[in-house]
């Protein structure tokens, strides 16, 4: 073989090797581009929100119809949070569907692409939902008539739900179909206390406050602003007293939960980013506290400020 022939052969082999490498790079690039164009990576254009009727957190209109979009959101504390979150995501269509919390969780667990605001995180649902913190919770409270404080609660600044449930002569009023966190849920699930619990399906009425006022139950487990709203709307406002529940961990958060799917992940990322921006603004920070009874409002102010300061600084998705 002459020197020129050998050189041409070497060049040919180099060209073949280069061509093969180029083809591999081209194929890899094509797959990467296909991934970018996949449905999972496409921009989300719609978020469906499940919204219960729970004054003063979420309000329906005067005819009992839920809002259908951001413009119809009511004046409640949760409405205020959602309004500011949606305002931060203007390129997404926000569709609101009225449903109770139990139904909303059932729909999510069936795989419906949905987001549920103002929920307590439970470990058993972590495999089915993405979570991002929406706000700090108020303290869960025990509400009693003021003329029975000494008998039921004594002079302690907090109330032990476990101690109250252990007294067989007392009846508790508890909203049906709601989660209060793992520890309180476990206390309420004890077989031996079931006859001491009156479970009331929640509505926008003042039925729970009326039952407490009339002595049909002895104490009421409820968020303070929900109890305050009902009591405020009674024909005659009776003196009531609130005490934080000892077993409720106030270092927890209220969350927004979205279906644990590719679309749900995109939704929760957008919502998390929106909350970080909204948490810097007064409208978001004050959405809930203005509904609290004055004594509760003052006690939560430092904790709420710490939460919103931290929330505005970094992503939080669980």
Describe this structure in words.
With 318 residues, the chain is of the alpha/beta class. It has 11 helices and 10 strands. α2 crosses α9. The longest helix has 34 residues. The chain is globular.
Number of strands: 10
Tally of alpha and pi helices: 11
Report the β-strand fraction as a percent range. 15-25%
- Helical fraction equals 25-40%
State the shape: globular
Distance between the termini: 69 Å
Strand order of the largest sheet: 7-6-8-5-9
Helix/strand/pairing category? alpha/beta
| Rg, nearest Å | 27 Å
Weakly predicted, low-confidence segments: 1-7, 18-41
Taken in chain order, the helices and strands follow as HEHEHEEEHHEHEHEHEEHHH
Q: What characterizes the major β-sheet?
A: 5 strands, mixed
Average residue pLDDT: 87
Secondary-structure blueprint:
Elements: H1 3-36, E1 46-51, H2 77-87, E2 93-98, H3 101-109, E3 115-120, E4 129-135, E5 141-145, H4 149-152, H5 161-165, E6 172-175, H6 182-188, E7 197-200, H7 207-213, E8 219-222, H8 224-232, E9 240-244, E10 254-259, H9 262-278, H10 282-285, H11 294-311
Helix pairs in contact: 2-9
């Amino acid at each position: 073989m002459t020197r020129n022939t050998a050189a041409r052969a070497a060049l040919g082999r180099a060209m073949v090797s280069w061509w093969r490498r180029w083809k591999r790079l081209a194929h890899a690039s094509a797959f990467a581009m296909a991934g970018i164009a996949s449905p999972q990576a496409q921009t989300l254009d719609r978020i469906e929100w499940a919204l219960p009727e729970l004054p003063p957190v979420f309000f329906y209109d005067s005819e009992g119809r839920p809002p259908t979009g951001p413009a119809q959101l009511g004046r409640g504390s949760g409405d205020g949070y959602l309004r500011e979150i949606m305002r931060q995501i203007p390129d997404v269509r926000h569709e609101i569907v009225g449903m109770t919390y139990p139904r909303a969780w059932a729909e999510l667990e069936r795989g419906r692409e949905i987001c549920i605001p103002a929920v307590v995180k439970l470990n058993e649902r972590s495999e089915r939902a993405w979570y991002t913190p929406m706000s700090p919770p108020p303290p869960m409270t025990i509400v009693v008539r003021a003329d029975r404080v000494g008998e039921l609660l004594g002079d302690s600044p907090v109330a032990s739900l476990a101690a109250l449930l252990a007294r067989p002569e007392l009846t508790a009023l508890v909203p049906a179909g709601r989660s209060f966190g793992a520890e309180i849920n476990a206390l309420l699930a004890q077989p031996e206390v079931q006859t001491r619990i009156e479970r009331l399906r929640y509505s926008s009425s003042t039925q729970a406050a009326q039952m407490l006022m009339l002595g049909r139950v002895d104490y009421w487990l409820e968020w303070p602003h929900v109890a305050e709203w009902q009591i405020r709307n009674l024909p005659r406002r009776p003196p009531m007293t609130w005490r934080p529940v000892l077993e409720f961990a106030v270092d927890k958060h209220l969350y927004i939960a979205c279906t644990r799917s590719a679309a749900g992940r995109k939704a929760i990322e957008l919502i998390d980013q929106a909350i970080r921006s909204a948490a810097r603004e007064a409208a978001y920070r004050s959405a809930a506290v203005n509904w609290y009874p004055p004594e509760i409002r003052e006690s939560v102010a430092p904790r709420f400020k710490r939460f919103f300061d931290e929330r505005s600084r970094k992503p939080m998705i669980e």
